[in-house]
Design brief:
Strand content: 5-15%
Oligomer: single chain
Number of helices: 27
Radius of gyration: 29 Å
Structural class: alpha/beta
Helix content: 40-55%
Largest sheet: 8 strands, mixed
Shape: globular
């Protein structure tokens, strides 16, 4: 290996001893190789910049650097899998992929490029920016990233950071991942569904592609499990960075958890001890509330304490997450407080963290297959997560980890490791993808932890209801088309049905809006009345689904004007993302040659067609108001839910009757038990479009009896002889229709 550690060097040329001596000599040189001939970057053929050498000094100080030669020897050896184990903040996620690129370059990329997966899209983006900088390359050329709805890669890209979901989707078109020579599965301890599935699938790929190298990067807590699962591969152990932190416990706060956490931050700041603070909250909502409290308190602090910069870190901040690394100056008086949740347990390492405050809780969405609904569960984190959080304060001199819970709580309530996501997630989308990969039987797929049989059966049953499976349990033609879309199966089926009902333009817009993050923002207190008035003009009388189409169309008509978004308190970022998703969906439809009907939004026929398309995909998500007061009972189970506060049926003026039957997009069992995105449907339409055996399989209830009676009426009407209809309106019918038309609201785009 070349002594200066430049990319492209290979460890076989020199042993570790001489190379290390050469590195030490280089570090004494002020210009790091710039005194003589300019060194050339082997990836783009240009001379290295001074920035490259500056970052190279920092890279050599990382704990992972001490393992480089051992790692490269294993990578070049006979083992197809290499396991890298180490605590967070040691440089694994930035350096390991670069060394894999060096290995691939030494082979002239004969076996393919390098892919590095991340459980979080935001981490993939952030890491690609840092690594492109360290390699002295341009992001989007030799180094790129690929996350849902954003692909910053070209034909020149040789190192691709991607979300684990995107690499798994890539396997549907390239099951053996032939364009890659090395695949790095980073943060395997996160146990996301795509990473767990990739671990199993890549083991099978290695049998057919022995030249492929798979590197699994994990925390020490998962090392033993992964060793056994991967067949006892060579293990590279990365040492910790600095001294272990001082660990403090504090009894769980009797008052607000947010207030107690913020008070702990302020106490540290007032003591004027140097170092940044990392605060772990339970959820995104808690992060937002804690940031609001801390920003208010920071403004009132004595100037002599120095500035306190509060930075939220969660998926919703997007590219603003890079603010963590902007303007970091050693010895500066500014203290940063990063308020986050599980996202930062392993990702987003930042120098100077001396204090970690851990609330010890997380909010997880847990799917219950029996009722086909998610529950928001606030529960303790695991011991391994607590360790990862504490490791964030590892430094020299030692930092401090303050746990806002007692040692007894840690010992008695925290499980050893987190529950794998595959045990708590709806599996319909995963089963559809695996069926697309010709894995007909889920038993053929190797899992670290097998999904519960009940979850698998429910997923197969749902796909069968959606006509995605044939009589043999393989994908039907409809199922194959559904698998082409990066959507949940129900939404994919509704989009396919829109081709039959001539409402593709509207359904594509709706699918994009449902896929993007929620567009409504909480208005400022003094703006609530004005915003409510502006929003009311966008409400559609036929339901929330139509309101979303209205909002998207209005946003496009106003040329994505941010002023219009502020006026209506809607998120410009969410609407721009919806535009990107919409373009992606149309591209898929054109590629597989599905018909796209012209727009007709606003006509009665179009409303009727959109309702039919929605029911074709979402007949599993229908509820009925059992008492006329807004208590909606699901058809598939006995849970009672309510309309959300932002529902068009509650916001319209003057108030009208609540719809007796509704179709909804989501239902989560939480404190308010509200449905999300609700539109009225007619039960006759449900009877006509839902599979008959689905209606027969509904649990006994008054709603089921009503639907079965309707079905018998429809069947009887179909069997009855046709009676000619008299010409002209029925007596009194004209006035009634006129009253109904007057009663119906008119939707006007503002």
């Amino acid at each position: 290996m070349a002594g200066n550690g430049a990319p492209g060097s290979t460890p076989r040329q020199n042993g570790p001893g001489p190379a290390l001596e050469k590195e030490e000599d280089d570090e004494e040189e002020p210009a790091l190789g710039c005194d003589g001939d300019l060194e050339v970057n082997p990836y783009d053929g240009l001379p290295f910049s001074s920035r490259y050498y500056e970052l190279l000094r920092q890279r050599r100080d990382l704990p992972v650097w001490t393992t480089k030669y051992s790692f490269m020897e294993h990578l070049e050896g006979n083992s197809s899998i290499v396991l890298v184990s180490g605590p967070p903040g040691t440089g694994k996620s930035t350096q390991i992929p670069q060394w894999c690129a060096e290995y691939a370059l030494s082979l002239q990329f004969a076996h393919g490029l390098v892919a590095c997966t991340q459980p979080h899209s935001l981490a993939a983006l952030s890491l690609s920016l840092r690594v492109a900088d360290e390699m002295d390359l341009n992001l989007g050329h030799e180094v790129g990233y690929c996350v849902p709805h954003e692909d910053c890669c070209t034909t020149e890209t040789i190192l691709r950071y991607c979300s684990d979901e995107m690499l798994l989707r890539e396997m549907t078109s390239d099951p053996l991942l032939r364009q890659y020579g090395v695949v790095v599965l980073d943060e395997a301890q996160e146990r996301t569904v795509p990473t767990d599935v990739l671990l199993g699938l890549l083991k099978d790929v290695l049998h057919q592609r022995p030249a492929l190298k798979v590197v699994v990067v994990t925390s020490p807590a998962m090392e033993e499990r992964l060793c056994a699962f991967c067949g006892d591969p060579p293990v590279v152990r990365v040492p910790a960075r600095g001294d272990p932190p001082v660990l403090l416990y504090r009894d769980r706060p009797a008052r607000s958890r947010i207030a107690a956490a913020c008070q702990a931050v302020l106490d540290i700041h007032r003591r004027q001890e140097p170092g940044h603070i990392l605060l772990f909250m339970a959820s995104e909502q808690e992060i937002i509330e804690a940031c609001s409290v801390l920003q208010g308190e920071a403004a009132a602090l004595h100037p002599g304490l120095g500035p306190l910069l509060v930075l939220p870190l969660h998926p919703g901040v997007g590219r603003a997450a890079q603010r963590l690394y902007e303007g970091l100056e050693e010895g500066g008086r500014e203290r940063r407080v990063i308020v986050t949740h599980g996202l930062a347990e392993a990702s987003f390492s930042m120098g100077g963290i001396r204090f970690v405050i851990d609330t010890g809780l997380e909010l997880r969405s847990v799917y219950n297959p029996r009722i086909r609904a998610e529950s928001q569960v606030l529960r303790p984190i695991s011991k391994s997560q607590a360790q990862s959080r504490m490791d964030r304060a590892t430094s020299s001199p030692p930092g401090t980890c303050l746990r806002l819970y007692s040692e007894a709580f840690y010992e008695q309530r925290l499980p050893p490791s987190p529950v794998p996501h595959v045990s708590e997630t709806s599996l319909s989308r995963l089963v559809l993808l695996l069926k697309r990969l010709d894995i007909a039987d889920m038993g053929q797929c190797d899992f670290l932890d097998r999904p519960a049989p009940e979850s698998l059966m429910q997923a197969l049953e749902d796909l069968d209801y959606l006509a995605a499976l044939d009589d043999d349990g393989n994908l039907s033609e409809v199922g194959i088309i559904m698998s082409e879309f990066p959507l949940d199966p129900q939404l994919a089926k509704a989009l396919i049905a829109s081709c039959e009902f001539d409402c593709v333009e509207e359904m594509v817009s709706l699918a994009a809006m449902l896929t993007a993050s929620p567009c409504f923002l909480p208005p400022a207190t003094h703006m609530e009345e004005a915003v409510a008035m502006h929003r009311r003009a966008l409400l559609h009388p036929d339901g929330d689904h139509f309101t979303l189409i209205n909002i998207f169309n209005a946003f496009q008509q106003h040329e994505a004007d941010e002023g219009w978004c502020r006026k209506h308190a809607v998120s410009a970022a969410a609407l721009r993302l919806a535009g990107i998703v919409r373009a992606e969906l149309l591209e898929v439809m054109q590629r597989i040659e599905l018909p796209v009907s012209p727009p007709a939004f606003g006509t009665d026929a179009n409303v009727h067609n959109i309702q039919r398309a929605l029911i074709s995909g979402y007949f599993l998500k229908v509820a009925r108001d059992i008492d006329g007061s807004g208590n909606y009972v699901m058809l598939t189970h006995k849970h009672v839910a309510h309309l959300p506060p932002a529902c068009c049926y509650l916001l319209r003026q003057p108030p009208r009757r609540l719809p007796p039957w509704v179709l909804y997009h989501e239902f989560t069992i939480s404190q308010d038990n509200c449905l999300r995105v609700v539109s009225e449907i007619q039960p006759q339409m449900l009877v006509a479009l839902a599979p008959q055996y689905y209606l027969s399989n509904l649990p006994p209830s008054e709603s089921r009896d009503l639907l079965m009676a309707l079905r018998e009426e429809v069947a009887a009407a179909e069997d009855a002889p046709v009676v000619p209809t008299p010409l002209g309106p029925a007596p009194g019918g004209g006035d009634e229709d006129e009253d109904e038309d007057e009663d119906k609201e008119v939707c006007v785009l503002q």
